[in-house]
Design brief:
The complex is a heterodimer. Chain A is an all-alpha fold. Chain A has a domain at about 70-335. Chain A contains 13 helices and 4 strands. Chain A has helices at about 15-50, 65-75, 85-100, 140-160, 165-195, 200-205, 215, 220-230, 245, 255-280, 305-330, 335-365, 370-400; strands at about 120-125, 125-130, 290, 295. In chain A, the strands form 2 sheets. Chain A has a two-stranded antiparallel sheet with strand order 1-2. Chain A has a two-stranded antiparallel ribbon with strand order 3-4. In chain A, a hairpin with a 2-residue loop joins strand 3 and strand 4 (about 295). The longest helix of chain A is centred in the first third of the chain and has 36 residues, at about 15-50. The model of chain A has no long low-confidence stretch (mean pLDDT about 85). Among the domains of chain B are: about 1-80, Four Helix Bundle (Hemerythrin (Met), subunit A) (Up-down Bundle); about 140-180. Chain B is an all-alpha fold. The mean pLDDT of chain B is about 80. In chain B, helix 1 (about 1-20) runs antiparallel to helix 2 (about 25-45) and helix 2 runs antiparallel to helix 3. Classes of the chains: A mainly alpha, B mainly alpha. The interface of A and B includes residues 88 and 154 of A.
Chain lengths: ~400, ~180
């Protein structure tokens, strides 16, 4: 019945149970380690881009800096402001920390997906997948979790009983809810092409480089997804939630000690998870790079383990891109942020989705593909002109009558 | 196992529902509502309705209650309500009458239909269109976009009308603003 892992169907035996428990522990440890290394990587890379050295004292290349910071934060005094809502104030860090780890559960972390294999491996005589859970709703689980992550930030700001955190959290909730729509709509294109919601199914559908959804959905959904994901993560250039010039420290101003560390951990964990999700959706996850019949095969290493190496390599690229964004792009103004989300990304994602759907329908029914595409493009141009007319009308009205709200 | 899941989810739902009513703080009440919605999502998963569970969390917990909280925070009504002053004086007696009536109707329904509760009915007969991991989504799409497509489209039009109506109602024209300033 409730079986997110193929092992847990039918009777529950000891070996499968132990394997699942082992997977839970391993995924948790990977999450913590990845976060620790990501913090170090970000500090080091940003330092490099700004002509500084960055952390270099603790451990080789300063790699243990995060650990030292964590220990320091752990032993600091834990403050709860007088005007805070105690229960919610204590709850909020966990509401942001737990979803960050849950979302990692659905990422395929390895396994052999070549030649139509489903990424299944055999451990101790049991067939399982190299991912913690493969629920039927797959990617929707990630969306659900990212919509829950809003609560942590929102309640943290509100329960602090202080002005700037409240402003930060009001910004955060509006921003994250708006960009979730764009995220979901760009995701829809991927689901349309792959025809399944399950993450391992999506990976199986991308065996060649031409099948990668980055190419087969036509790049635009990927760009929208990347922008919306950056906004959803509250990372620069969309980090208005904690704009330090305007809001002191944003939603986490009043937090100290281990509670602050939990927010910090969740933020970086979310970055790692989102990069892994992008790789899974658009770049074939643990699939090797392959053109036609030619496959870049790493010699001597079994295919299942090779999947993990490929995934790691691809995720690292995206982690670097996020750091790059932070080092180079200036922060958006709030109205620019909302305009980009509602007036550009959502209509673009919707239009592109309609285009892909019409192509698919035409191919299924053997219609004239040129005619279908042309008419779809004409309809889209018409919609775009209507939208522009509405915008200019509202701008004119604002000019003559002043702001309405 | 199924019974255990049901008891846990039912407890979540009931505790949340009671919390929505007895918490005098709007934010706490909204959080209790989230607990109830999660309980319902768990029940959906237990019934193999994975897609509904996901939508329940994404739409209700992830968007609607977030908007509730957003409004509560933005308007600054996040103070404990004073229950002494009654905005509508006849509210309480009317509420008692209505709730008694509702309880009466429910009890009558249970008494009349108690036979049906003992034996398992056939349920709504839905043919299995597909099996496999995406069966949920496929079946839902088949019925929404083929059989009930008109109802589905009409509902979406209704939602658009609601949005436009809200904007019109909330929109203050310049004259009203000027009058308020006086």
């Amino acid at each position: 019945m409730i079986a997110l892992d193929t092992l847990l169907i039918d009777k529950i035996l000891w070996t499968p149970l132990l394997i699942v428990l082992l997977k839970v522990v391993v995924v948790f440890v990977i999450g913590l380690l990845a976060t620790m290394l990501m913090v170090w990587f970000e500090r080091k890379a940003i330092a490099g881009m700004q002509n500084r050295i960055g952390p270099n004292k603790t451990g080789p290349f300063g790699i243990l800096q995060t650990l030292a910071d964590g220990i320091k934060l752990f032993f600091k005094e834990d403050l709860i402001p007088n005007r805070a809502d105690r229960f919610v104030f204590v709850l909020a860090p966990f509401l942001s920390f737990v979803p960050a780890f849950l979302a990692f559960a659905i990422i395929p972390l390895g396994g052999d997906f070549r030649n139509g294999n489903a990424g299944e491996v055999t451990w101790f005589g049991q067939v399982t997948k190299v991912q913690l859970a493969d629920p039927p709703i797959g990617v929707l689980f990630a969306l659900a979790i990212s919509s829950i992550a809003v609560y942590g930030i929102m309640l943290a700001g509100w329960s602090s009983g202080s002005k700037y955190p409240l402003l930060g959290s009001v910004r955060a909730s509006a921003q994250m809810v708006s960009y979730e729509a764009a995220l979901g709509l760009s995701l829809a294109s991927v689901l349309l092409i792959s025809g399944t919601l399950s993450t391992s199914g999506i990976v199986s559908a991308q065996s060649r480089i031409t099948d990668w959804h980055f190419f087969s959905t036509g790049i635009l959904p990927f760009i929208i997804f990347l922008i919306a994901a950056t906004a959803e993560l509250n990372r620069p250039p969309f980090d208005l939630v904690e704009a330090e010039q305007e809001l002191v420290g944003g939603f986490n101003t009043e937090y100290s000690s281990i509670r602050f560390a939990l927010f910090y951990l969740a933020e970086f964990m979310n970055t790692v998870t989102m990069s892994a999700l992008i790789v899974t959706l658009f770049f074939g996850g643990p699939q090797p790079i392959a053109f036609g019949d030619f496959v870049f095969d790493i010699p001597l290493i079994p295919n299942a383990l090779e999947g993990t190496i490929w995934l790691l390599a691809k995720v690292l690229v995206f982690l670097y891109i996020y750091i790059w964004f932070r080092a180079t792009l200036p922060r958006l103004r709030y109205d620019q942020l909302m305009d980009l989300g509602w007036k550009v990304l959502i209509p673009a994602a919707l239009g592109w989705f309609m285009l892909l759907a019409s192509q698919r329908l035409a191919r299924q029914n053997d219609w004239n593909i040129f005619l279908v595409t042309t008419s779809a493009v004409v309809v889209m141009i018409g919609c775009y002109l209507l939208l522009q007319a509405a915008f200019s009308q509202s701008a004119r009205q604002r000019e003559t009558q002043g702001p309405m709200f | 196992m199924e019974f255990f899941v049901f008891v846990c989810a039912a407890l979540m739902i009931l505790v949340g529902a009671v919390g929505v009513i007895i918490r005098s703080h709007p934010v706490h009440a909204a959080l209790s509502l989230v607990l109830t919605l999660f309980g319902v999502a768990v029940l959906f998963v237990a019934q193999d309705a994975h897609f509904l569970a996901a939508v329940q969390v994404i739409v209700y917990a992830g968007a609607i209650v977030v908007l509730f909280l957003f409004v509560i925070m933005l308007l600054g009504v996040d103070r404990v309500e004073n229950l002494r002053t009654e905005p509508l004086t006849s509210q309480r007696p009317l509420a008692i009458i209505v709730s008694l009536g509702l309880i009466g109707v429910l009890v009558a329904a249970f008494v009349r239909g108690s036979d049906a509760l003992h034996e398992r009915g056939e349920g709504i007969n839905i043919p299995d269109l597909t099996t496999g991991t995406d069966a949920n989504t496929t079946q839902l799409a088949e019925s929404i976009f083929s059989r009930y497509v008109v109802a589905f489209e009409v509902t979406s039009v209704l939602l658009v009308i609601a949005v436009v109506g809200t904007v019109l109602l909330a929109r203050r024209t310049k004259t009203v603003v000027a009058e308020n300033l006086k």
